[in-house]
Amino acid sequence: MARPVNRHRLRVGDGAVTRAVILTLVLATTGLALIAPLAVIFAEAFARGVPTYLEALARPDTLHAVGLTLLTALICVPLNTAFGIAAAWAVTKFSFRGRNLLLAVAELPFSISPIVAGVAYLFVYGAQGLFGPFLQAHDIKIMFAVPAIILASLFVTAPFVLRELVPLMMAQGRDEEEAAVSLGASGFDVLRLVTLPNVKFALLYGAALCNARVMGEFGAVSIVSGNIRGQTSTLPLQIELLYQDSHAVAAFAAATVLAGVALFTLVAKYLIERAERARGEIVAPRRPGH
């Protein structure tokens, strides 16, 4: 005789004890790995009061590092945004031989250590590198200067906008673009009036992630910049220099700037995802039984 089917079988997490254990582990991990370090940064930065905090941020070398970091972001984010749009449009809206290879190459920075990328730039543009003799002969300085910082930052942040755009543009297909072309729209008009409005939230999210990574990049920049105090030190490198010099308050004060960028990125991510759901560009998963 067949045994009756239990339609009320407990799922993982339905039990009170299991749910309590899972929530405790998640909250404990979040608190120890995320919230506690951020709290320590701000607590140490303001430990001696607001005037000391502001004085630490006003150090000439720290201000130069902030300016250099902002300059790098102002150059890299627009360039990588344009690259991400162009590459995503090419990959998702056209069929051509080598399309998958192009996508794999564009995502290469995610699989390469930033330090390895920095060393690779040294072998290409350094004094003993591939183009080193040519650059020296024409008095062009790339390594251990601002151009090297920009090149390294461009490399490590290249895929961020692309990875946000490709899945959405693939899901949307080509119908709207083909309809616009059939009505006489030019390629630029199709991009500006059809494609970009449909992916604007993903584009903003990718640009926000790109900006956060540019401002926080350490590995590749530390190799190619030379970490020259007051000249080629970005904010992450300046924090390391201050900490090595036993200027802990100044180091934590500078770290609050990067922590603020990270928090701003999280808030921007939440607002963008909320706007996407409101516009129906992200469909909430259906619950079982509905």
From TrEMBL:
Gene3D superfamilies: MetI-like. Its main location: membrane. Residues 66-267 form the ABC transmembrane type-1 domain. SUPFAM superfamilies: MetI-like. Keywords: Membrane, Sulfate transport, Transmembrane, Transmembrane helix, Transport. It is a multi-pass membrane protein. The chain crosses the membrane at residues 20-43, 63-89, 101-124, 144-162, 202-228, 248-272. The keyword Kinase does not apply. InterPro entries: CysW_permease, MetI-like, MetI-like_sf, Sulph_transpt2. It is found in: Cell membrane. Part of the ABC transporter complex CysAWTP (TC 3.A.1.6.1) involved in sulfate/thiosulfate import. Probably responsible for the translocation of the substrate across the membrane. The complex is composed of two ATP-binding proteins (CysA), two transmembrane proteins (CysT and CysW) and a solute-binding protein (CysP). NCBIfam families: 3a0106s02, permease_CysW. This is Sulfate ABC transporter permease subunit CysW. It comes from Xanthobacter aminoxidans.
